[in-house]
Amino acid sequence: MRPGGRSEFFPAVTGMPSDSVKSGVKSKCVRAESAIMAFYCFTLLRNPVAMSIVNIAAYKFVTLDDIATLRPALQATCQALDLKGTILLAPEGINLFLAGGREAIDAFLAELRADARFADLAVKESLSETQPFRRMLVRPKKEIITMKMPVIKPADGRAPGIDPVTLKRWLDAGRDDDGRPVVMLDTRNDFEVDVGTFDNAIDYRLTKFSEFPDIVASHREDFEGKTIVSFCTGGIRCEKAAIYMRDIGLEHTYQLDGGILKYFEDVGGAHYQGDCFVFDYRTALTPDLTPSTTKQCFACRAVVTAEDQRSPAYVEGAQCPACADSRADADTLENAPPAATPALSA
Fold first, then answer.
1. Which residues are marked as active site?
2. Helix or strand or coil: residue 114?
3. Where is the signal peptide (predicted)?
4. Pairing relation of β-strands 93-100 and 84-90?
5. Strand partners, 296
6. Domain spans, the chain
7. Is the dihedral of CA 12, 14, 20, 23 positive or negative?
8. Overall pTM surpassing 0.70 (yes/no)
9. Residue 159 in contact with residue 239, Cβ under 8 Å?
């Protein structure tokens, strides 16, 4: 953009007399403006607006005993690079969702991986046109994903993983390489599942991940004689879930490496219905890893589909069809709560 807000592809026409309304002059102006507009449109077609914000999700279970010093160091690095998002630090490891420019993201990852503990950190990546986070937070936690099962220590050993390409092959065939039927187990919360999940996946309608152990233990018969693949958004929940399931005797349990996001990245949306809920202001990603039309109600946190958004009961930032009746007695929509900051999970 040039000073004054003018695009370099749409220059001003200057030096025109104020009384230039004679037909000849006016015709020349119209032709000039048409030519300029044609060039502008041609330029946009050849150089479309790129999605310039890089979004990364990563986690690693690794013993961290220096959180008191690691936290301010990571905060300073992210602020210096103008990154936004959330990093969770716990004695069991790191969990992060960050967004920023390509050079900034690459610089952050290079610095983080210089620490031997994070040298092999695996990252899932997607792009967006705008920054999906409002601020930068580095937070200490008891667990990077709350399960309330201290005996589950992924840093001491994990369940076998399955890569997306192999999983797709299993799902295509309807069985694993040993001939056992394959069961997909969704370890996410109910509202996430409602946005999209794998075909015929088992969903126990969890409201929080800490409910998972008791519910699965009471449904062991659902998995007898089958190969179980636990999955979640980015891999962190299904990693703990798979360890627990093996601990209670479900030996043919695997975790989907990298979660749904890595599956989308490697093989697309095969055997998957809908989108994938993400914990930022994009709300959900399609199988091609672009933001979907799905939104989340800031009043009640319910998922709002494209169809819901066409309902007269939907008012963005205030209410949705799921909570409109309960809010009907409110004096004015101005009393609606402010937009909530999304929680972090994966």
1. 232
2. coil
3. none
4. antiparallel
5. 303
6. 53-140, 154-274
7. negative
8. yes
9. yes
How far apart are the C-alpha atoms of 33 and 29, rounded to whole Å?
6
pLDDT in tens, 319-331: 999 999 886 655 4
Q: What is the dihedral of CA 4, 7, 11, 17, to 10 degrees?
A: -30
Cα separation of 101 and 81, whole Å?
Answer: 9
pLDDT in tens, 238-290: 999 999 999 999 999 999 999 999 999 999 999 999 999 998 888 999 999 99
How many CA atoms within 13 Å lie on the side-chain side of 183? Answer: 17
- Smallest CA-to-CA distance from 132 within 319, 300, 296, 258 is with 296
The CATH class that applies to domain 53-140 reads alpha beta
Are 53-140 and 154-274 equal in CATH topology?
no
Residue 126 to residues 57, 93, 130, 146, 261: CA-CA distances in angstroms?
A: 9, 23, 12, 25, 9
Q: How far apart are the first and last CA of the chain?
A: 39
The answer to whether the beta carbons of residues 129 and 49 sit under 8 Å apart is yes
SS3 assignment, position 168 = helix
Q: Tell me how far apart the alpha carbons of residues 61 and 77 are, in angstroms, rounded to a whole number.
A: 21
- Cβ contacts of 151 within 8 Å, gap of 6 or more: 247
